[in-house]
Write a structure and sequence with these properties.
The chain is built from six helices and nine strands, in the order E-E-E-E-H-E-E-E-H-E-H-E-H-H-H. It is α+β, with helices and mostly antiparallel strands. Strands 1, 2, 3, 4, 5, 6, 7, 8 and 9 form a nine-stranded mixed beta sheet that branches. The longest helix is centred in the last third of the chain and has 12 residues. The protein starts with 16 loop residues before the first strand and ends in a 10-residue tail after the last helix. The relative contact order is 0.22.
């Protein structure tokens, strides 16, 4: 579902945030915020940015210490290729209108980017979210997802469900209010 007044079309969601609809119960994507990095006719790719694994890169491979990346937080990027680690760095600067994203970095490039600009946020993602041709369009038309403009400040400052609720509230107030409902209202 596109935010009211949005001119984003399903064909232009790369660079956007995609939010799980409050009623989406798929455990892979419930309350997820996905940073969409590619959206083309052949398929789409993004990473879940609000599901921390509780680990850092040094815990999965000591070689990341060679690049000063051993303390980089590791997130569950999605259910596809969960044995693969993707590195991304970004910056949202109030003096810079926009959002700078460096995605798919190798460890040496990530180290170089951090040396150039220590204000970059860097994260690692185990796996990614991917859709084949037409799959994401079908899910979007079925209202499984809400497409939002990039909110770089929130992406850098908020975590977990707080990030999801913040962005969904800004994007669509009605759905934002739905996001406040308990998971199991019958247990209330």
């Amino acid at each position: 579902m596109l935010p009211e007044g949005s001119d984003k079309s399903a064909s232009s969601i790369a660079g956007s945030l995609m939010l799980a609809h409050p009623q989406l119960k798929d455990p892979n994507f419930m309350r997820s915020v996905i940073l969409m990095t590619a959206h083309e006719e052949e398929g789409s790719l993004g990473v879940v940015v609000n599901k921390a694994s509780g680990m850092v890169l040094g815990e999965i491979d000591a070689a990341f210490a060679d690049f000063g990346l051993e303390q980089v937080p590791l997130y569950i990027g999605g259910p596809v290729s969960s044995d693969q680690v993707l590195l991304a760095a970004w910056k949202s600067d109030q003096n810079f209108v926009g959002f700078q994203l460096f995605f798919g970095l190798d460890p040496a490039s990530a180290k170089a980017k951090l040396e150039e600009d220590p204000l970059l946020s860097i994260r690692a993602f185990r796996g990614y979210a991917g859709w084949g041709e037409g799959e994401l369009e079908s899910e979007l038309s079925g209202n499984a997802w809400i497409v939002s403009e990039m909110d770089g400040a929130a992406l850098s400052e908020l975590e977990g469900d707080s990030l999801w609720r913040h962005v969904i509230m800004k994007t669509n107030l009605e759905l934002g209010l739905m996001s406040l409902a308990p998971d199991c209202p019958e247990e209330n």
